[in-house]
UniProtKB/TrEMBL annotation:
<dbReference type="InterPro" id="IPR052634">
    <property type="entry name" value="Sperm_flagellar-bone_growth"/>
</dbReference>
<protein>
    <submittedName>
        <fullName>Uncharacterized protein</fullName>
    </submittedName>
</protein>
Amino acid sequence: PSTAPAAAEPEKPPPEVLPLHEDVARLLLEQWRGVETTFELEMKKLLRRVRVEHREMINHISSSRSHFLEYLHRPDSKQKLLHAFQARYNSLDNELRGLPQTKSELHEQADLLQDELWAVSDASREKAEEERTSIVSDSFMSDHVQLIIVSFVGMMQQEILRFQATRAILRDYFWYRAGRNMPEETPEALNVIQMFMDDAPDIQGSPIEVDEESNSKLTDSDKERLGKLKAVIDYCTNFLFGQQGEEEEIEHPLMVKLAQANKIEEKLMRERNKRVFERAKFLVEDVREREVQLSQSLDRMLGNRFKSEMEAIKGAITEIKLAIEKEQRLFHNLVLKVSDFIRDEDSLTYALPPPVPPLSVLEEVGPYRLSSWQLLSLSSWLKRASSTGVITVEILTDALHKAASIAGMKILPVEWISLPPSKLRAFLKVRLLLLHLFPPPFLLLLYSSLPL
């Protein structure tokens, strides 16, 4: 027997795809432009805020270093102690400096001065260590790290708003073309900023784990904050991507395309979320690295400062002990300038005695007195008058008168030129002649040998 063929099932008509109306296209375009404009403006504000916070932290580190350096260079009482000792030392009589007991006492006073200077230095070091501790333990950095994390949470908020708005626009577009009615209500925006500030239970994450080999300088509080930021990102991702739309249950080509478009948006958001977290972690690690460098720099400055100060004190005491051994005064002013010992050669501690005036190159001769050259010339002149060396008073008077009357001879003093022969004869008395020809010290010896 023959069997009848089965009746063929009727084919389903293809799903209807409506053209996009011009008004709907304009509305969707305006919505898209509004979403993108708002997203760009808000992200620019948040990125600018992050840059400002980062720059403030760097400036704070720089100003802290400068402030500590100025603090280390503050004057103290060491210079007063050194000046007081120098004044007492220089006031000591020079005759006492060579005594052994005086030297021993001065060395003891120098050692006592060194102990006093060291005590002042130790007190200054303790205060400087307290200042360093206050700088390092300041909460400025932690507070601004928290502000940076909040800014990145704000970026996540903008990513959520953009993602939700984009999904709504895609849904409206495909639903309209699929002939479905577009929903009048949109899903309520997820406020992650408020959840973050309120420590909502849904975003309580565990601290992030850091590889020990990376030598990260993140603190425990930083790890907790970054862990909380990561929890925010994970919560938002799971919340948004877990919303399954009604379109996935409808067999329509446009719904398939809608699902594919949503998948693309999900992938893009995951990548952006990853970059947001990595950037936040990088900035926090950067400022913490700078903070550690600041702490190390302050330690080096503190150590070098007081090491140099010890050397300066040692140099000052060595200078003092050297002066004690040489039995000399401390001629130049000794200066302990912060961590440097200076012998100020432009500043004297006492007035020097005036130097002995140099001898004059010109012979000073009084009135009626003959200079050495005149005595030599007169001797030659008289030898011409008497070659034997014996001469009478009349001939000597005449010779002197002629020598005085000849212009340009300058054998005799100027006062003798206008004298008459009678006064020249009076000068020829032995004692008066010697008084005019020789200085008084010679006359004292001469008078003591002449008979009265």
